């Protein structure tokens, strides 16, 4: 049999995207599994996504990640969606199945795996989520589908927050409530899991934290953050001071990356290699 000099291609489309570390993690995972895959990080401007998605088919990419500003726009260029992605209304990864493009959203799934790894579950729990953007939509829908009892959404923009609450109620049947976030928001006393799904605290703004009343965090709560750089965010530090169990965003990033890896390759992801690679990349060792 002749030697194959062609690598399988995957990657990411976004703008901005230069500081996205996913490729480092995925390429380390490919190498660990002996797979001839390349992960290419590509700057695709708003308005150029159709041409870029046509390129996925034309160049036989195995798949692609989508990040800002393309997660919603990409829906019109896909042939099929997972049930979760259809409800969320956003896609962060695509698989090219013989020219048919199938979209999924692994952000919320990665969050659920992080909870499971910490011996926690959303089932039967009261969950409060800060924010109503893409991460909040993915996390809240996945938690609802996993059996959450009640989901409270706090958001600065009323229309966006109420729209997410309406989506959760209509499409998943979960009890959902909106809280206007126009002052330091109080965490309801019956909250079991509190999640920051905003970008507050993301590098380089690691000296910032969400504007909530931290005195209302209780020691029996589980507090999570989507921020992965620095994963020991001020938000989680405040929760730790009050005795709460905390789960950082690094694991969530790795988990969704691992899911993408398997969907593209059909091979189980080397989780430890991915964690180690990102930790080294962020100077956390």
Q: Can you tell me about this structure?
A:
The chain is of the alpha/beta class and 285 residues long. It has two domains: 8-105 and 251-281, Rossmann fold; 108-247, NAD(P)-binding Rossmann-like Domain (Rossmann fold, 3-Layer(aba) Sandwich), CATH 3.40.50. The protein contains nine helices and twelve strands. Strands 2-1-3-5-6-4 form a six-stranded mixed sheet, with helices on both faces. A six-stranded parallel sheet has the order 9-8-7-10-11-12, sandwiched between helices. The longest helix is centred in the last third of the chain and has 17 residues, at 249-265. The model has no long low-confidence stretch (mean pLDDT 95).
Features:
285 residues; alpha/beta; Rossmann fold; 6-stranded mixed beta sheet; 6-stranded parallel beta sheet
Helices and strands, in order, run as EHEHEEHEEHEHEHEEEHEHH
What do we call the CATH topology of the largest domain? Rossmann fold
What is the number of helices? Answer: 9
Largest sheet descriptor: 6 strands, mixed
Please report the total strand number as a whole number. 12
Mean pLDDT: 95
Overall shape: it is globular
Q: Which stretches are low in confidence, meaning pLDDT under 50 for 5 or more residues running? A: none
Q: Tell me the number of structural domains.
A: 2
Question: What is the CATH superfamily label of the largest domain?
Answer: NAD(P)-binding Rossmann-like Domain
Share in β-strands = 15-25%
Structural class: alpha/beta
Helix residue percentage: 25-40%
Write the CATH architecture name of the largest domain: 3-Layer(aba) Sandwich
- Nearest-angstrom radius of gyration? 19 Å
């Amino acid at each position: 049999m002749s030697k194959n000099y062609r690598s399988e291609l995957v990657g990411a489309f976004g703008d901005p995207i230069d500081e996205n570390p996913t490729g480092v993690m995925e390429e380390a995972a490919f190498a660990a599994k002996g797979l001839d895959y390349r992960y290419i990080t590509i700057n695709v401007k708003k308005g150029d996504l159709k041409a870029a998605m046509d390129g996925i088919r034309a160049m036989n990419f195995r798949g692609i990640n989508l990040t800002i500003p393309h997660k919603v726009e990409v829906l019109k260029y896909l042939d099929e969606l997972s049930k979760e992605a259809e409800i969320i209304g956003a896609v962060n990864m695509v698989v090219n199945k013989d020219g048919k493009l199938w979209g999924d959203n692994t952000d919320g799934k990665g969050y659920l795996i992080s909870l499971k790894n910490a011996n926690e579950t959303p089932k039967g729990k009261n969950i409060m989520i800060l924010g109503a953007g893409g991460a909040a939509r993915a996390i809240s829908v996945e938690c609802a589908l996993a059996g959450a009892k009640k989901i409270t959404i706090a958001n600065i923009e009323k229309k966006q927050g109420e729209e997410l609450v309406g989506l959760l109620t209509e499409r998943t049947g979960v009890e959902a409530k909106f809280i206007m976030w126009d002052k330091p928001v109080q965490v309801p006393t019956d909250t079991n899991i509190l999640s920051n799904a905003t970008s507050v605290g993301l590098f380089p703004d690691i000296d910032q934290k969400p504007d909530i009343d931290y005195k209302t965090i209780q020691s029996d709560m589980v507090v999570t953050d989507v921020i992965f750089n620095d994963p020991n965010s001020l938000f989680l530090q405040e929760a730790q001071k009050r005795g709460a169990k905390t789960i950082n965003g690094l694991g969530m990033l790795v988990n969704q990356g691992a899911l993408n890896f398997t969907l593209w390759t059909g091979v189980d992801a080397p989780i430890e290699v991915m964690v180690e690679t990102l930790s080294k990349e962020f100077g956390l060792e």
